[in-house]
Amino acid sequence: MERAEEPLTVYTSEIRQPAVTCHPSLENSTMENLNRQKETVFSLVQVKGTWKRKVGQNVKQGIKGRVSAAKIYESTSSSGTTWTVVTPITFTYTVTQTKNLLDPSNDTLLLGHIRDTQQLEAIRSSTRPLKRFIVMDEVVYNLYGSQVTDYLEARHVLYRVLPLPTTEENKSMEMALKILEEVHQFGIDRRTEPIIAIGGGVCLDIVGLAASLYRRRTPYIRVPTTLLSYIDASVGAKTGVNFANCKNKLGTYIAPVAAFLDRSFIQTIPRRHISNGLAEMLKMALMKHRGLFELLETQGQFLLDSKFQSGMVLEDDRIDPASVSTRVAIETMLEELAPNLWEDDLDRLVDFGHLISPELEMKVLPALLHGEAVNIDMAYMVYVACEMGLLTEQEKFRIVCCMLGLELPVWHQDCTFALVQKSLCDRLQHSGGLVRMPLPTGLGRAEIFNDTDEGTLFRAYEKWCDELSTGSLR
Ligand SMILES: NC(=O)c1ccc[n+]([C@@H]2O[C@H](COP(=O)([O-])OP(=O)(O)OC[C@H]3O[C@@H](n4cnc5c(N)ncnc54)[C@H](O)[C@@H]3O)[C@@H](O)[C@H]2O)c1
Ligand SMILES: [Zn+2]
């Protein structure tokens, strides 16, 4: 049976999460503080099914039984006792690029998330039918629903496919609850029957949130069907819905067990939505990869015209712009996300284009798509970078030309200077008192800046409006 042809990345992240604590992490100063009090470190050892505390940081030697990576720090002072729990949590998920995902001879959709070979063999040799709950974007269902059900029938799966109008306007808790009601009625085994989401970023985000709420965390699988979700929403761990008129205000950082990426879905998305996805790709190019920028600069129109399907004809993935660009976009994205899955580090290059755009996107909804709002934000920031002397006029010109070539908007009348100020003010509040502005410092290079003054922002704004308000370079 054919498996995924190209497992792209296996990703593991370790996160320190204090579960019962007044100390968010045991950094040096906190440790010193604890030491000044009376403090005992306990390791945890499992003997005959029971976990026991054992005094000491490293008790592995001479101990029979399983030693947990978790620690309990007990400190006593005159005011009482505090137990600080430090428990590393590991997320492992796979991102797999595959072809012919809905071909019944390809078992990626059903089994591609299982890494344990013994478990895989046991499932393959069992006659018990698999059970899957699948949520599909309604538009995607109309296009691919019969292929999905044919696939499930051919594989003798017990299934329920739920098509839903997962639009940005419907990206709400109500939609997540609707999914949960249906999941509950259908009944799934939380450990072995992952929920599958097939659709664009909206569908993947809502289903991800629903799954992470169901029984506190039910595994889910992402199958992106837009370019934007292929290179962005399916690669990371974020789930969410809009709330109180704010983008993704409710959500979780729970990675899917797997994301299965098949570029053939992109052939049916409207041209405007390809441009939309190209904006997020351009973001990674500007921040991290000059080669990707140059590829978008020269092959942008071709990618738009061919709808990322060229590989099907060219066959050689190494020179095919669609293969190369998606691969680099995914790899650069994973590089930034893997070490910072829960966004504890607030200095994030992937935030480029996302400082002003959330406010703008919600203000004009549904006029601008996510990537379009991101591009308008990036275009303004390029002017800021130029005003700060980080980019030359020529580099600025090349970037704006590339954006226009990707058929992306570079300016919007609702992106007022007041909106810029409000967005950056909000950012200051939610980013530990620093604005943490990612700005290009060349083509494919970037740094985070905290010292951009109001005058620079305003001069850049005026120039941006002056040069780009007609929607093209003057
Ligand atoms: N979780 C994350 O890390 C993350 C990252 C980036 C974006 N997002 C979220 O993703 C959303 C945007 O995603 P999107 O651009 O995919 O939008 P979307 O989900 O709204 O899909 C865009 C449109 O394309 C249609 N569609 C989807 N697949 C199709 C196909 N194969 N053929 C024809 N039509 C198709 C949909 O019905 C919809 O009308 C935003 O809500 C954003 O917040 C999340
Ligand atoms: Zn985005």
Description:
The protein is an alpha/beta fold and 474 residues long. It is 42% helix and 22% strand. It folds into 3 domains: 13-90, no CATH class; 98-269, Rossmann fold; 278-468, Dehydroquinate synthase-like - alpha domain (Dehydroquinate synthase-like, alpha domain, Up-down Bundle), CATH 1.20.1090.10. It has helices spanning 28-36, 108-111, 117-125, 138-154, 173-186, 201-213, 227-233, 271-288, 290-306, 310-314, 321-337, 357-364, 370-387, 393-405, 417-430, 454-468; strands at residues 6-18, 38-47, 50-55, 66-77, 80-97, 131-137, 158-164, 195-199, 220-224, 241-243, 246-250, 258-261, 437-442, 445-449. Strands 1, 2, 3, 4, 5, 6, 7, 8, 9 and 12 form a 10-stranded mixed beta sheet that branches. The longest helix has 18 residues, at 271-288. It is globular and about 75 Å long. Bound molecules: nicotinamide-adenine-dinucleotide and zinc ion (ZN). The site of zinc ion has 5 residues, from α13. Residues 232, 280, 354, 370, 374 line the site of zinc ion.
